[in-house]
Amino acid sequence: MSASHTDTPPGTPDGTVTARLETVRRSILESCAAGGRAPGAVTLVAVSKTHPVEAVEEALAAGQRVFGENRVQEAKAKFPMLRERFPDLELHLIGPLQTNKVKDAVALFDVIQTVDRPKLAEALAEEMARSGRRPRCLIEVNTGEEPQKAGIPPAELDAFLAACRDTWKLPVTGLMCIPPVDEEPAMHFALLADMARRAGLPEVSMGMSGDYETAIRFGATHVRVGTAIFGARPYPAAG
User: Fold this and answer.
1) How confident is the model at residue 147 (pLDDT cuts 50, 70, 90)?
2) E strand segments, the chain
3) Distance CA 205, CA 199 (A)
4) pLDDT-based confidence at 233, cuts 50/70/90?
5) Angle at which helices 53-61 and 17-34 pack, to 10 degrees?
6) Which tens digit of pLDDT belongs to each residue from 182-212?
7) Helices and strands (DSSP H and E) totals, the chain
8) pTM
9) I need a surface site. Which of 80, 132, 156, 221 has the fewest CB within 10 A?
10) Among the listed residues 23, 71, 81, the one whose alpha carbon sits nearest the alpha carbon of residue 50
């Protein structure tokens, strides 16, 4: 079942976070089986941006432990108290990170998926050295080379990755992408997976509510699913 078909109005039997989460989990297992991948090969990152703490609590009660947020301030307001109750919770930053938010980001997140420029890499390295906390880092690749979008152009990835590893000593474990909305995502997923493979990076974060099954087919290790789990966002959010 496609994730894009799981959106049912709140209040219907299938409209709860728990029911939606189960549908997405089942779809991930089916996609892994179809691609000959192990059932645990893909980590579901439940994207809770703009959704209230109560929705996250319902997902936690259903066994979900990995979440994604777009904004440092929103995550800071929601997750510290949840982490006290669920110490095995893992939090991913999946939105753009400003350098003036690096201190909070390093303290709060376990994974930062959007390392996308030298200035940010340097700031992260300095804060990790200062704090002693080293969240895993993924490099965001602008696979569509869209001028308005964040991310390292594919042609510049090798040099940037080398600097992240050798100069800034960042714990880079993978790559992330957001394909152009008006293009077939498969070609972008294939490109990102190939770049990660060539670089020896084990983690590939790609695929969202409408295309995560395709992303799994092309080797995603992390899929970022929000609407298919939590429903339509309460209000518009950029990023």
Assistant:
1) very high
2) 43-47, 66-69, 90-93, 111-115, 136-140, 172-176, 203-205, 222-225
3) 15
4) confident
5) 60
6) 999 999 999 999 999 999 999 999 999 999 9
7) 9, 8
8) 0.91
9) 132
10) 71
